[in-house]
Specification:
alpha+beta, 2 helices, elongated
Amino acid sequence: MAVKVSSKYQVVIPEKVRELLGLKPGVQVDVIAKGGLAYIVPIPSIENLKQNFEKKLSNKNIRDKKDPRQKF
């Protein structure tokens, strides 16, 4: 999708791309230039990271590992 750079060097991110990246107003993004290309990478908020890790670290996913040296 082509977009035009404004006189203030701003671009509008197309709706389909915003939806795919989960971009909402106020979300920070990192713009990376590499090999003649520009990448827009969403920066997850602390709350978003916390929610993702809480889901992954739930008690259901943690295995009970016993110390093989334990005699009980």
